[in-house]
Amino acid sequence: MRHDHIITAKQLSREDIEAVLDRAAEFDADPGAALDRHPGKLLALAFYEPSTRTKMSFETAIKRLGGDVIDMGPVEYSSVKKGESLADTVRVIEGYADAIALRHPMEGSATMASQFVDVPLLNAGDGAGQHPTQTLLDLYTIREQAGLDDITIGIMGDLKYGRTVHSLAHALTNFDTRQHFISPESLKLPRNVRYDLHEEGAQVREHDSLDEILPELDVLYVTRIQRERFPDENEYQKVAGQFTIDVETLESADDDLTIMHPLPRVDEIDPAIDDLDNATYFEQAHNGVPVRMAILDMLL
Ligand code: CP
């Protein structure tokens, strides 16, 4: 993989993706065996938005490679509160670390920040834009569960604001996949994402109900309605609690359906589903460690 920064899933070729997933599989088989890979390397965590999985799995990954983290900490205790710009902040941090993982509420922030640093910058989520390292762990999970070619995947929920959806949809165009998008009218895929998918020749269909497509799916990727991104709480309330699944919903699904979710969930997946073999979302979250180990290993 020859990239300075990981900003968007659009920059990743099939070859890049397979290289990361293959390396991740090696780390997954024996995570403790990589401690001598990058001793002394420091990953800076600059998270301007809350995170559990992305932040902690990046920290675990660099430590499992023999390195360590430095953490900007909560924004309210950083000099961001004094008015420091993102450009200045990342320029300062690159003097302290060998790579930067950045999460920021503004779409396009990772692209902008990457123009100010020479160390690898990893987009750990930029607003409603992209979340490419999540996509790589999603693809790793899909490859393990269903394979990455000749599959039918349903992506359901908040397709408008869900950055994991935008990244995953782009990345899947590298493979022989049929993509079905299921959402309320107000949360359909943004026009620019639909345009890109069309340009990439993706097989895409949109639905307003899961029922009509569920029996055809190999993978169902459920997402949270991103309440924090709605400009108007009333608009959120109109769609809250819709597009959820429970055991009854799954009656018409294939027995081998793989159910995924980037997490955190609110009410999209009934906890009774957690006990089914189909539920893969906690394993998906665990896959963040070997996949982020592979990404860091290849960039550092
Ligand atoms: N999936 C994901 O990005 O989770 P966090 O927000 O907890 O990092």
TrEMBL record:
Transmembrane helix among keywords: no
Binding locations of L-aspartate: K82, R163, R224
UniProt GO molecular function: amino acid binding; aspartate carbamoyltransferase activity
Matches recorded under Gene3D superfamilies: Aspartate/ornithine carbamoyltransferase
Enzyme class at the top of the EC tree: transferase
Assembly with partners or alone: Heterooligomer of catalytic and regulatory chains.
Function noted in UniProt: Catalyzes the condensation of carbamoyl phosphate and aspartate to form carbamoyl aspartate and inorganic phosphate, the committed step in the de novo pyrimidine nucleotide biosynthesis pathway.
Full protein name: Aspartate carbamoyltransferase
